[in-house]
Amino acid sequence: MIETEDAPFAALLAAERKALALLDAIEAAELIQAGRTELEIERAIFAIAARDFGVTEHWHDRIVRAGVNTLCVAGEAAPDRMIETDDIVFLDLGPVFGPWEADVGRSYAVGSDPLKHALCADLPIVFDAVKARFDADPDMTGAALYAAAEAEAEQRGWRFGGRIAGHLVGEFPYARQPGDKELRRISPRNPQPMRAPDAEGRPRHWILEIHLVSPDGRFGGFYERLLEGMP
After folding, report:
1. First-last CA distance in the chain
2. How far is 67 from 48, CA to CA, in rounded Å?
3. Is the overall model pTM greater than 0.90, yes or no?
4. Whole-angstrom Cα distance, residue 155 to residue 22?
5. For 2-226, which CATH superfamily applies?
6. Tens of each residue's pLDDT in the chain, 231 residues
7. Residue extents of the structural domains in the chain
8. CA torsion angle for 26, 208, 97, 57 (degrees, to 10)?
9. How far apart are CA 21 and CA 94, in angstroms?
């Protein structure tokens, strides 16, 4: 029984490892540069994902955000933007490996703006702090973890920019499954314990999203991965 319950998580971890390797390949290709547009970089990322990782399906519509567009949340429409000198960019990848979703995000400061570099450095720190709160509370609810994300962001001098702080993840397309969507999100509207099993008694697994915004509201940054994933 334990083996059966652990199999989906092992598959999610394997998908995340591949997605992180895709991020590394994107960085090695030096795609994120001033003078390139978001959509231009997206096309290049899709090409690398297909050629080197066998990915033909992605569950995110927009995967590159730059400048003022880094204030956008997932699924929010925005015009294509060219990366400028001293800009900030984040990637929000959702590649599908076999039947399993991956969901990873990183941010990059292009140029020498110290505030943008500081935000990029703080993203994984805030992620780890929020994860530590989850690890310490076996009864953590989605609403409580969202509040923790807001508090940890404020403690580092940022605003929390996400309407949610993450969501459940599983076999593609998990997000389209029936039921109350709010109970599948880390948000103020989810009073349910996050460790509660699903309707069939199986463990559920979560993506933690950290979306930080500068105090003046001019730009943001993003970082995400499995809440119970690799260190």
Report:
1. 26
2. 24
3. yes
4. 32
5. Creatinase/methionine aminopeptidase superfamily (3.90.230.10)
6. 233 447 889 999 999 999 999 999 999 999 999 999 999 999 999 999 999 999 999 988 899 999 999 999 988 999 999 999 999 999 999 999 999 999 999 999 999 999 999 999 999 999 999 999 999 999 999 999 999 999 999 999 999 999 999 999 988 766 666 678 899 999 999 999 999 998 889 899 999 999 999 999 999 999 999 998 765
7. 2-226
8. -70
9. 13
